[in-house]
Specification:
The chain contains eleven helices and eleven strands. It is globular, with a radius of gyration of 22 Å. The protein is α/β, with parallel strands linked by helices. It is 29% helix and 18% strand. Strands 2-1-3-4-6-5-11-7 form an eight-stranded mixed sheet, with helices on both faces. Strands 8-9-10 form a three-stranded antiparallel sheet. α1 runs parallel beside α6.
Length: 341
């Protein structure tokens, strides 16, 4: 491709209207920085990009991208993105959605998009609250959280996006933090190159209605000790001093100190994002401080499988080879017909 894009080429002339300090700004910047690299890797021009969204703070995203965009209705971003991709498979389709938009009213569409393995890129902003409608609890809000619609604390168990994706036979799942812009940018490129449905969860802060919801892992003071960035083929090492690692202890993952009790890096778990069996991937997406384990970031799962649109294309081509119906007259005279006198 002769065109050399810069992040500026993907910034629209619209004023960005989010609350000051919102994590959405960092996510937007990371995506805009990733797009030139995506264009170079795929050989695409900017005209082949479409950003679709539903309703929510994150769903303003298409206005801020200098690409084609579609701002849909609540919960229908997956359906819209699916339609765009199936109608024109040559496009690279990006779905921008929030935890409420995607996993409440849009939950059914999301699950089926994932299981069908449609080649769309889903970017899920997870602030564990409904921000646009002023602070109601969402499907990812922690059990017991006090909000405007749960004044005595929620009594609902939350969804875990990673578990849901893997449970729907997802082929790609990644996770980042809004404050980790370089990592988000890296994941966006990997997402674009993945052939199939990719879902990236970004733990994002809502400064107004759920401030510091992810502080246990995002605060700079202990972020390195409570997160592990996974990269395919590399041992699972983390910590400020890079002296901690992950090992299997029976059917559970445990944290060990490198050098302690004779543990060497060679004994640590090595990340295999391409493993078709989702067992270990499921264990990784479920890790967190509640179990004295770090939260897994980066590309956790990336496996190959045939896409929905490829199956549609192959079926159409096969039917065309075998059909005896080539025009409307053939169709009208096929099957059971009668001549009325």
């Amino acid at each position: 491709m002769d065109i050399q894009y810069t992040p500026q080429d993907f910034k629209s002339n619209q004023e960005v209207k989010w609350c000051p300090g919102c994590g959405d700004y960092a996510i937007l910047a990371a995506v805009q920085r990733a797009m030139p690299e995506v264009c170079q890797a795929l050989g695409y021009t900017r005209e082949r990009f479409v950003f679709a969204s539903g309703i929510g703070c994150s769903s303003r995203f298409p206005y801020y991208m200098n690409t084609y965009g579609f701002h849909g209705i609540h919960g229908r971003a997956s359906a819209i993105a699916t339609g765009i991709k199936v109608a024109n498979p040559s496009l690279t389709v990006w779905q921008i959605t929030g935890d409420g938009d995607a996993m409440a009213i849009g939950g059914n569409h999301l699950i089926h998009a994932i299981r069908r393995n449609i080649d769309i890129n889903i970017l899920l902003f997870n602030n564990q609250i409904y921000g646009l409608t002023k602070g109601q609890y969402s499907p990812t809000s922690p059990l017991g959280i006090v909000t405007k619609t749960s004044p005595y604390g929620t009594v609902e168990h939350p969804f875990d996006p990673g578990s849901l994706v893997l449970g729907a036979r997802g082929t790609f799942f990644a996770r980042s933090l809004d404050v980790e812009m370089k990592l988000t940018q890296e994941i966006m490129v990997a997402s674009a190159l993945h052939d199939g449905t990719s879902v990236t969860e970004v733990l994002q802060n809502c400064v107004i209605f759920n401030d510091r919801a992810h502080a246990a892992v995002t605060d700079k003071e202990y972020r390195e000790d409570r997160t592990v960035v996974l990269r395919h083929g590399q041992p699972m090492i983390f910590g400020k001093n890079k002296d901690k690692g992950l090992m299997l202890d029976g059917l559970k993952i445990k944290v060990v100190t490198i050098g302690g009790e004779g543990v060497t890096p060679k004994e640590l778990l090595v990340h295999d994002a391409y493993e078709s069996n989702p067992g270990l991937h499921m264990m990784l997406v479920n890790m967190g401080p509640a179990d004295n384990l770090p939260i897994a970031l980066g590309v956790i799962r990336s496996v190959k499988d045939k896409t929905y649109e490829a199956n549609v294309r192959d079926q159409v081509n096969e039917v065309r080879k075998q059909t005896v119906i080539h025009n409307m007259d053939d169709l009208l005279h096929s099957g059971a017909t009668w001549e009325v006198k």
